User: What shape does this take?
Amino acid sequence: MQRGKAIFFLIVGLLIIIIIFFQLNDANRNLWNFISLVANFLSLYGLLLAYYQILSLRELSEKTQEAVKISSHRLKKVLSISELSKSKKIIEEIQIFLHGENLYGALLRMKDLKEILIQNKYIKDLEPFTSIKQYKTLLINTGIDIDNISDSLINDKEKLDKSNIIKNLEITKSKLIEFENELKNRNDDNR
Amino acid sequence: MITDRYIKLIDKLSSKTQEKKVIWQRSSSQDEFKLELEKGAITIGKYEGDFNNAPEVFINIYNDRGDRIDVISINGSDKHFEYINEFYSSIRRSYYKVDETIDSIFNELESDKTLGAPEISEDDDLPF
Assistant: This one.
């Protein structure tokens, strides 16, 4: 389409040059003047074509940037959702470890969970959820539970209340499901 | 050894607990209670001791990322033990609402109504 327009303006321009040439008096209507008129027109045409190309390139670049931004945002959103899904799986694993009295396994996965909960704080899309007090409570409770499991493995003085840990994990899981659904249903234009 | 700064902290927490202005919760360790704060949390737990070990009270301080940033351990031989132990007992009483329960027992005892309930017999019909 662009090329068609360029050819159209070239033909129209040349026709105008021919008309102008035939409007000249007999003395000036010679080959050298015709070449001169055509050359001037071609120079002007070349300049306009270059300017038009620059504008087109700029528009293309802006569109590309916008497309990259949208893709990047969608990718981040997908990654955020995947991180939340991963956290849910980890919670389920911890609960299985706790039911099976495998405190070492539970401790390792609890540490993974805490790491993900901290990482979530730095994901921009999750900021509305991670900045609320409830999220801090989840993080603190996870920290306390990790230390209590760890202490119970090190010394006999600590008597672990597994039901409380499982309850805390359930609360964390419910919150993560809420975050995930919020994120999935959020309009992409609200970025 | 417990520092003066922590003694001051425990003083404040103790008076707030007695004024019932602190909500203590159960922690994931038996005999341990936690208090959530804006910038972290405090937990307090007790080890009752056995033939070989003296009783101990532990206070843990957590930051807002859930990291344990300090541990205060006071065992039975420490001069502050009685004080910290009493603080722990006040938290326990606050959590289980011991004082409120005893007050309600007193109220019941001082009333004229008959106390207690008859034993449920197998022959009793359901109330519906």
About this structure: Residues 2-60 of chain A form one domain. The interface with chain B takes residues 114, 117-118, 133, 136-137, 139-149, 151-152, 157-162, 164-165, 168 of chain A (CB under 8 Å). The radius of gyration of chain A is 35 Å.
